[in-house]
Structure formats: C-alpha cells, structure tokens
Amino acid sequence: MFHAPLISSVPGFSLSAVVTSDPERSEAVRTRYPGTEVVDRADRIWQTAESYDLVVVTTPNRLHVPLTRSALEAGLPVVVDKPVAATAEDARQLGVLAAERGLLVVPFHNRRWDGDFRTVRRLIDEGALGAVHGFESRFERWRPRIKPGWKENTDPAEAGGILYDLGSHLIDQALTLYGRPLTVYAELDVRRHGAAVPDDAFVALTHPGGERSHLWMSAMSPQPGPRFRVLADTAGYVSYGMDGQEDALRAGRTPREEGWGLTAPESYGQVGTPEAARPVATEPGAYQEFYAGVGRALRGEAPPPVALADAVTGLEVIEAAIRSSQDRAVVTLPDPRTSPMA
C-alpha cells in the first residue's frame, strides 16, 4: 500500500475504499485503516461513484488505461500510476476523454518530490551552479535474479522492462528541468540470465536550450554510480544514494511522523569544483505534496501537480528510445505543436 499512507497524511483527504481481492491485503487494510471499506471488484466503485471524489489507479501497467477510462466514464477524476499507458497515443486518448468529461487525470510522478531532486531543482533555480550543460541521473540496482511477474513479460501491453519502470521516473525528472527534448538516443540491453525484457539502459536527451541529459537505469549494477551529477560552468553538484521515502513507506512509516523525508548530513551531496567543494543540505523529500497538489486542483485552486501532457511526452521519449536502440540511431522527436495535447 504505497499510496494509502500518503493520501491519509494530507488534510482533507480520507481513504474511503480499497479494491483488492487478496485476503492478506484485505486484512492489512482493515487493520491499518479500520474505517476504510474493502471491495473485491472495481465495478463496485463505479456503481457508487457519487460516494467518492477521486480514484487512484495503482495496478499492473496493462490495467491503467481501462481502469482510468472506467473511472472517467463513471464521472470520477483519477490519479494513475506511472507509466500512465503503454503508448503515448493511449495516454492522449485518456486526455481526450477527460477533457470531454471535464475531469482530471493526474499522473503519479512522485519522484519530482524526491529530496535529492528537489535539491537539484533549487540549486539550478538559484543559479548556484552557473549555466548547466550536463545533467546525469541514475537509478542503478543490483538485482541479478529475476523476480517472476508482469514486469518481466514481453507483451507490449504490459509495458514491462526497466525503461518503462525506472526510466519513466528519470525521463520525467529530465523533462521537468529542461522540457521536451529535441533528440533521443538510447541503448537497451538484456543482461540477466534468462531475462526477456530490457534490464539495463542508457538514454541521452538533447534539450532546446542545449542541455544534455544522460540517464542510466539498471538492475545489474554491482557498483552504482552517483545518483545525480550536474555539470555547469561555475560549479557542479554530485550526490549518491537513493531518496529514502520509498523504503520508509515499506517499513510502515508515514509523512505524519517527525523527520519524514530528511537526509542524514553524512549523505548530503557536494557542490563546487575539484579545488573547493562543500556539502549542501538535501531538501526534505515530500511525496505527500503530490496529493496536497491534487487536492488544490480538485478544488479549482491550482493546476494539477503533474500534467497529463507531461506523461504523454515521457511516453513519446520512451517510444523514441526503443526505436533508437533498435535502429542504432538518434531519433528526432516531432514538433509538439502537431500533438493534440501540446
């Protein structure tokens, strides 16, 4: 239950119902959220849609589009986990339906609220590094053994493999900083014995301002590189390790607890040059701010915290990366003004 503690920590939100047919998950919900109803089928939510204000779709990827569509048709706005769809066109069609119904579809790109990424954004916005020319970002893990499941399935509808999984986050962060890229180059590989979907990938993006994003994602990194390395004409920033919010949620913690999202000083990143570098405090991680932003959007006070159009662009980049790897060539993205969601 990744989303439940985030939802329940935001004032004005309550967890009304959880859809699951798994007995262990059902019992976990009843134990931790005793006022929450547990139902075994999503259609029971659609039948009583007037009882709810928002649906959160957090399922295997192939179900994102049909469940989001059903929620919209029932008159309910939706938060949908990443990737929103297996293709950019499917995501665009959800946008069309949402616009027709006057409802929100908000992609759950929570990694915008990672503490280290928030630190990168702050340093860039403040001009603390000078003019940035290189942005390097990594999600590298050491998981050489295959864990059976839909993420290892080669059916395109599953949107399996590391590019859709970890790559969705890294690409979204790069787009958040520098916007839609002009070109995409990628190398996708299958490294684990017996694997059938990419588990090791490199993606290079060239942005309109001349910045270059180099993104690595891997399940086969016995020695991970830096999480972030930002290169500029005055100084650079480098940090190691992962934001701790995901592990904290798995351990049963919530954003209501003191110290949520804080990074220990010994894990702070460094800013400077080889001659003069200093640690810089990491911004607190704040996944709960995503749902606070959703609340403001539902009340008409602000735009959604993540635009569906951003997720469409991210999927266009993923599709371009797949073509680039297959053709061993740089792919130029089409003019966004030709997109229905531009």
Query: Low-confidence segments, ≥5 residues, pLDDT <50?
Result: none
Largest beta-sheet details: 9 strands, mixed
Strand order of the largest sheet: 13-12-11-10-6-9-8-7-14
Extended strand count = 14
Mean pLDDT comes to 95
Seen as an oligomer or otherwise, the chain set is single chain
Radius of gyration using CA atoms only = 20 Å
Helix/strand order, N-terminal first? HEHEHEHEHEHEHEEEEEHEEHHE
Helical proportion, percent range = 25-40%
Q: What global shape is seen?
A: globular
Please identify the structural class as seen in this structure.
alpha/beta
Cα distance spanning the termini: 34 Å
Count of helix runs: 10
Overview of this protein structure:
This protein has helices at residues 4-8, 23-32, 43-47, 64-73, 88-101, 115-126, 162-178, 245-250, 288-298, 308-327, and strands at 17-19, 37-39, 55-57, 78-81, 105-108, 132-140, 183-189, 200-206, 212-218, 228-232, 236-239, 269-272, 277-280, 331-332. By secondary structure, the protein is α/β, with parallel strands linked by helices. The strands form three sheets. The chain has a nine-stranded mixed sheet. Strands 3-4-5 form a three-stranded parallel sheet. The protein has a two-stranded parallel ribbon with strand order 1-2. β8 (200-206) and β9 (212-218) form a beta hairpin. α4 runs parallel beside α5 and α5 (88-101) runs antiparallel to α10. The longest helix is centred in the C-terminal third of the chain and has 20 residues, at 308-327. It is globular. The model has no long low-confidence stretch (mean pLDDT 95).
